[in-house]
Amino acid sequence: MKFSVLAGAALLAGTALADVDPIVINTSKFFYKTNGTEFFIRGVAYQQDYSGGGANGDSSSSNSSTYVDPLADSASCQRDIPYLVALRTNTIRVYAIDPTKNHDQCMQMLADAGIYVISDLSSPSQSIIRDDPQWNIALYQRYTAVIDALAKYNNVIGFFAGNEVSNNLTNTDASAFVKAAVRDMKAYIKAKNYRTMGVGYATNDDSDIRVNMANYFNCGSRDSSIDFWGYNVYSWCGNSSYQKSGYEARTQEFQSYSVPVFFAEYGCNTVRPRQFSEVAALFGDTMTKVWSGGVVYMYFEEANNYGLVSVSGNSVSKLPDYSYLSQEMASVTATGVSNSAYHPSNTAAQSCPTVDSKWAASEKLPPSPNAQLCSCMVSSLTCVVQASVSSKQLAQLFNQVCGYGVCNGITANATTGVYGAYSMCADMDKLSFAMDQYFQAQIAKGNGASACDFGGSASTQATSSPSGTCSVLLGQAGSQGTGSVAANPTATGSSPSGGSSSSAAARPVAAPSSVHFGMWQVGAYVVTAAIAGVGMIIL
Ligand SMILES: *[C@@H]1O[C@H](CO)[C@@H](O)[C@H](O)[C@H]1NC(C)=O
Ligand SMILES: *[C@@H]1O[C@H](CO)[C@@H](O)[C@H](O)[C@H]1NC(C)=O
Ligand SMILES: *[C@@H]1O[C@H](CO)[C@@H](O)[C@H](O)[C@H]1NC(C)=O
Ligand SMILES: *[C@@H]1O[C@H](CO)[C@@H](O)[C@H](O)[C@H]1NC(C)=O
Ligand SMILES: *[C@@H]1O[C@H](CO)[C@@H](O)[C@H](O)[C@H]1NC(C)=O
Ligand SMILES: *[C@@H]1O[C@H](CO)[C@@H](O)[C@H](O)[C@H]1NC(C)=O
C-alpha cells in the first residue's frame, strides 16, 4: 500500500507530529541536511509591536520595556501561519522571544508548515548598546537563555548576536563586543552539545563602514567569526533595478565571502504600495549564486508602514503590499546547487580591517563573561558598595571613583584591545572593585581609616583569602584586574550564566539592566535599543 505523505500529514493534523529537516551550512550556502537541496530563505520578519525597523527606523522610539513574544501565543501563530504560507514563506525572523515562555505549539505549527526560524538573541532592554557597548554577565544570561529555549526545535536555523549595533563611523568599536558574543554563543552551543545552529550578525547598510564590517565579522579564527551574515537593505525603492539599487555592487562585494549571506530585512517603502520588483532579482540566477534569499520587513502593520497585513484581534486583513509580494513570490524559482555538487573556492576568511580612523574595533576581543570570576573578586574585596545605592548614585559613584585612576580592571577599550578582566562583571561588582582599589591605595598611604565611605555608599566587609578556583582566577586577573583570565567558562563546565555561583545571586543588583552607564561619562547613558533602527542608506 502506498501511503501518501500528504494524506499522512492530513491524518496527523491536530496531533501535529511532522518535523522538518534541519538546515545546515556548507561554506557560503544553506542546504537541507538530508537531501542536500540548497535552501533559499523566503523570509518574513514576524514580531508585533516592533516598530523600530525599516529604512527610516528610529530605534529609540520603540518601547524598550516590553515586547510581545511572537512564538509564545499559539492563537496568533494559528491565525497568521496560513497568511505566511500563502506567501511561500519558509523562514521567519523574530527579534525578541521570552525564554521563560513555552514555544512548543507555535514551533510545531511552524514546522508543520515547513517554516524555519532565525531569532535575534537580544531584547529591547537587553542588547549591546552601540554608544556604550558591553558584553557582560547579564547579556550572556539573556543570550544563552534564548538559545536554551530554542535549541530543541529542528526548525531553528540560527541566531543573530546583534542587529545594527555599529551603524556609522562613530561606533565601530561596538562590533568587538558583538563579535565576542558570537564567539561565546558558538562555544556555548558546542559545550551544550546542541544541534549545529549558526550564530550570525545583522547589519545596516552604511557606505562608510559596510566593507570593514563584513570583513571584521568574517576574519580571524573560525571560533569567533560569524556563521552567516544578514544584511538589512532598503536600497531598492519602487521600480528600481539591479544596478541602480546597489544590489549589483553588493553582490560583487560578497562574491568571495566564506559564509552564507542573505537580506535580514528588505522592502523599501518610500514608494507605496510596495510592488516588490526586487524579489525577481534576489531570487534570480545572478543573485542566488551569492545570496541565500532574504527576509521581508515585515508581517505586521505598525506606525512605520512596513506591514503586509493589519491585524485586529483574530482577524487579519491583507494590505496591498501583501498581494504584490504574493505575486512576486509565486513566480520565483531559485534552484541553486546541491550540496554534493558544491565545490566552493571561497572557503578562506577575509583579512581583519586595520584599526585606523575608519575602523575602531581591534581583532582582540573582550573577555568572556565569567560569573564565577566576578563572584570570587567581590568576595575578596574589603571595601564594597552598599546594596542600597540607586542607579543614579551608581553613575555618580563611577564618575567619582574612576576619577582617581583606579578603573583599569573594569574598563574595556575595543580600539586598543585592552580589556580589564572585570569589565564584563555587573555594574555593582565593578564599582566595588574600583572602590576597593582606591581603599587599598589609601591604606598603603596610611589614610585608610575613612577611605571606604564614598558619602556613605560604601562599607567594609569581612573577607577570607581566596582558595581553590577563586585563587587561580584572581591570580590570573592580577591585583589590578589587568591580567587576562584564560579559563573558558563554558569549557570548565561551570556555567557563567548565573546559578548559585553568580555574583548577582550573592549580591543584590540595584541597577536595572536597561540602564547603561557611560562609565564615568555620566549622562551618556541614553538607552538606544539596538535591536532596531536601520540608518539612512548612503549609496
Ligand atoms: C529536499 O527536502 C526539502 C524539504 O524536506 C524539500 O522541500 C525539497 O523538495 C527536497 N529536494 C528534493 C530534490 O527532493
Ligand atoms: C511601554 O510599555 C510600558 C509597559 O507595558 C507601558 O507602561 C508604556 O506605556 C509603554 N510606552 C509606550 C510609549 O508605548
Ligand atoms: C552615528 O551614530 C550615533 C549613534 O551612535 C548618532 O548619535 C550620530 O548622529 C550618528 N552620526 C552620523 C554621522 O550619522
Ligand atoms: C512599475 O512598473 C510596473 C510594471 O512595469 C508598472 O505597472 C508600475 O506602474 C510602475 N510603478 C511605478 C511607481 O512607476
Ligand atoms: C560541503 O560540500 C562538499 C562538496 O560536496 C562536501 O565534500 C562536504 O562534505 C560538504 N560539507 C558539509 C558540511 O556538508
Ligand atoms: C580607547 O583608547 C584610546 C587610546 O587611548 C582612546 O583614544 C579612546 O578614547 C579609548 N576609547 C574608549 C571607548 O575609551
What would you say this structure looks like, in words?
The longest helix is centred in the middle third of the chain and has 18 residues, at 174-191. The protein is α/β, with parallel strands linked by helices. It has two domains: 2-341, TIM Barrel (Alpha-Beta Barrel); 371-538, Methane Monooxygenase Hydroxylase, Chain G, domain 1 (Up-down Bundle). The chain has 15 helices and 16 strands. The structure holds 2-acetamido-2-deoxy-beta-D-glucopyranose (6 copies). The site of one 2-acetamido-2-deoxy-beta-D-glucopyranose has 6 residues, from strand 1. It is a lipid-anchor; GPI-anchor. InterPro entries: GH, Glucanosyltransferase, X8.
Which properties best describe this structure?
disordered C terminus; two-stranded antiparallel sheet; TIM Barrel; Methane Monooxygenase Hydroxylase, Chain G, domain 1; eight-stranded parallel barrel; alpha/beta; 2 domains; elongated; disordered N terminus; 539 residues; binds 2-acetamido-2-deoxy-beta-D-glucopyranose
> Given the helix and strand composition, which structural class is it?
alpha/beta
Bin the helical content.
Answer: 25-40%
Question: How would you describe the shape?
Answer: elongated
**Average predicted confidence as pLDDT:** 87
Share of β-strand residues: 5-15%
CATH architecture of the largest domain: Alpha-Beta Barrel
